[in-house]
Specification:
This protein has a domain of 200 residues: Rossmann fold, CATH 3.40.50. The two termini are 36 Å apart. The protein is globular, with a radius of gyration of 19 Å. A seven-stranded parallel beta sheet has the order 3-2-1-4-5-7-11, with helices on both faces. Strands 6-13 form a two-stranded parallel sheet. By secondary structure, the protein is of the alpha/beta class. The chain is built from eleven helices and 13 strands.
Length: 289
Amino acid sequence: MTSTLFCFGLGYSAQALSDLLQPAGWRVIGTTRSAQKARLLAASGVEPLIWPGAPVRDALAQASHVLISTAPGDGGDPVLAACATDIAAAAAHLKWLGYLSTTGVYGDHRGGWVDEHTPLTPTTRRGRLRVLAEAQWQALAHEHGLPLHIFRLAGIYGPGRGPFSKVRNGTARRIVKPGQYFSRIHVDDIAQVLAASIASPRPGAIYNVSDDDPAPPEDVLAEAARLLDLPLPPEIAFEDAEMTPLARSFYAESKRVRNDRLKTDLGVTLRYPDYRTGLRALLDASREG
């Protein structure tokens, strides 16, 4: 019997999972907000639904697996607000339900390490909304027996989302804030973690999805410049940097994220265990293309 994945919000990470599953014979249905994106999804073999708008009840009824990859709003998760009844009705036949969250739920730890047992103490609005959305999904799963898995993603990079263009065109700046650490994850590793969880479901499980090497952001830009054989981007103190409020908010929290559980529970070996191998692969792929 063909397995069917239904994705609410078939964006960057969900597309990577789709690209991994479709060659194995999976059927993938995914929502998008625009007709243009729907056409692109159809060209990639995905069955698109424009949502909000198109009813999703029939798609959920056909799905064996569901991935939630939409951002929360002021009231929590918009998928639950619109579709909780239909999702609950699918509990009897769903084998796996995944929710993509963020490591921002942990808040600021001044560069210290966090794991899945760390209390959730977000300091940003984005983080607080994710905590709310996680709790809403956990409540629905508990009430209806849904096989929920939560994935807390670190900063995502991959094809089309790397530092090389800014380094090449001279707009990159190494913003330095002492003690600042970010964790990252390559989109292909997100896909393989999700696929491993689908293959070995553990309802109720929570996984941090990050690589092995949290690092200051200026180190990543320096490595990109080294790979391109270009001068180091200029160094600017955080206090002196001109940044959008959104960009500045990312520096409000500093932590290093442990990923032991995805290795021990799911048996995942990261393809890109640090930003150096990930950046090298991105550059090599761009040159081959």
